[in-house]
Design a protein that fits this description.
- The protein has about 100 residues and is of the alpha+beta class.
- The chain has one domain.
- The chain is built from 3 helices and 4 strands; from the N terminus they run H-H-H-E-E-E-E.
- The strands form 2 sheets. It has a two-stranded antiparallel ribbon. Strands 2-3 form a two-stranded antiparallel sheet.
- A hairpin with a 2-residue loop joins strand 2 and strand 3.
- The longest helix has about 35 residues.
- It is elongated and about 80 Å long.
Length: about 100
């Protein structure tokens, strides 16, 4: 279930959430500029947001890959597809000897 959420639901919802958050921040900045209030310099530049969001996504990817790698069954050996007597034998997992 968690794998489905991480690989299907999150990639579908994340861009929409990021866009909504960006629109909210943009409208607040625009209101501040129109009212004559000082806008912090970091809010004018997209680089801090890009760096932070990239680091967060990288962290999520590393944690999720680490979690799924540990849960993988490493006691069996993968045998790739082979051609035997003119027929393709599908790949399979076999117990290691």
């Amino acid at each position: 279930m968690i794998r489905t959420i991480l690989t299907v639901v999150v990639p579908l919802i994340a861009p929409t959430l990021a866009y909504l958050i960006w629109m909210q921040l943009r409208s607040q900045r625009k209101e501040d500029e129109e009212a004559g209030r000082a806008v912090p310099k970091w809010q004018k530049l997209p680089w801090p947001w890009l760096i932070v969001s990239g680091a967060a996504l990288a962290a999520v990817a590393l944690v999720s890959f680490g979690y799924f790698e540990r849960s993988a069954d490493i006691t069996r050996k993968y045998i790739p597809p082979t051609l035997e007597d003119g027929k393709v034998v599908p790949g399979r997992f076999e117990e290691q000897q």
